[in-house]
Amino acid sequence: MTTVIVNGACGRMGQAVLKAVQEADGLELVGAVDIKGGADTGSLVGLPANGILVETDLEALLARKKPEVMVDFTRPDVVFGNVMTALAHKTSPVVGTTGLSDEQKAEIAKAAEENDTPAFIAPNFAIGAVLLMVMSRQAAKYMPDVEIIELHHDKKLDAPSGTAIQTAAMIAEVRKAHKQGNPDEFEKLEGARGADYEGMHIHSVRLPGYVAHQEVIFGGLGQTLTIRHDSMNRESFMPGVVLAAKKVCSLKGLTVGLDKLLD
Ligand SMILES: NC(=O)C1=CN([C@@H]2O[C@H](COP(=O)(O)OP(=O)(O)OC[C@H]3O[C@@H](n4cnc5c(N)ncnc54)[C@H](O)[C@@H]3O)[C@@H](O)[C@H]2O)C=CC1
Ligand SMILES: O=C(O)C1=N[C@H](C(=O)O)C[C@H](O)C1
């Protein structure tokens, strides 16, 4: 059994993870943290009460329970501190929270090595989104003019999404940086052409009704190719989270991306 705590347990993703961990063979929920503490981690997610209450002090829980894994779905502004605290206690972080900078990821990689404690980060745990990213990298070899449109619920804090940035980074592995569109184009309203990642444009839509969606549109001579992924609910991320929680302790250092865990 791999012992797991969930950080951000009262949130949209945290609650889905609480349920998935309690239902997964091979994982044992031993604690949970959220700034909104108090709830029973069973009854909070429609399971029988289990007496494991959501706590508010991560460090105290890590010291007391010594869990092997901490799954983190909190906020972009607190995730780095959570991960460093977990590593200092030799607990392996499995991180879904987006917004970590490249510099922060480098520090996490260093701390993982120094504490001999593996860490795992995935900007998206849905298998379909992982396939979209891998297929986009392949398509960009032949159709290097590309724009990304990501669409999310209107409670999302960060833009562009972690998935959109990771998709652009993977495309950039095979695509020479170049400006797209008319060399003389100009914006009549600021932001009309979206964010710029090495000449690729990324557009962020935020509306009630959406969960998590992304289109990658490639343009070529007389043709376009659109690859689209839709997460209809947060259960879509759970097989990936459970897989990472089971595998993280057998990894070395920092691993980024669910594609690295797939056969
Ligand atoms: N990698 C992936 O596949 C996915 C990643 N995400 C990311 O996960 C993160 C969370 O998303 P949601 O669950 O929708 O947000 P949410 O706002 O519903 O949940 C965040 C939870 O964290 C808690 N929290 C805030 N500060 C905290 C702290 N210092 N310590 C402990 N708990 C704290 C909040 O009280 C809240 O319950 C976002 O960054 C989002 O982009 C979301 C879906 C999938
Ligand atoms: O905030 C969300 O909801 C999601 N965030 C992740 C991201 O920023 O890519 C993953 C997924 O898109 C849902």
Overall description:
The structure is a single chain. This protein has 263 residues and is of the alpha/beta class. It folds into two domains: 2-121 and 235-261, Rossmann fold, CATH 3.40.50.720; 127-232, Dihydrodipicolinate Reductase, domain 2 (2-Layer Sandwich). Helix content is 30%, strand content 25%. The protein has seven helices and twelve strands. The strands form two sheets. Strands 3-2-1-4-5-6-12 form a seven-stranded parallel beta sheet, sandwiched between helices. Helix 5 (127-140) packs parallel to helix 6 (162-172). The longest helix is centred in the middle third of the chain and has 14 residues, at 127-140. The chain starts with a strand and ends in a 7-residue tail after the last strand. 1,4-dihydronicotinamide adenine dinucleotide is lined by residues 7-8, 10-14, 33-36, 73-76, 78, 96-99, 122-125, 237. Residues 98, 123-124, 152, 156, 161-163, 212 line the site of ligand LZUJQKHR.
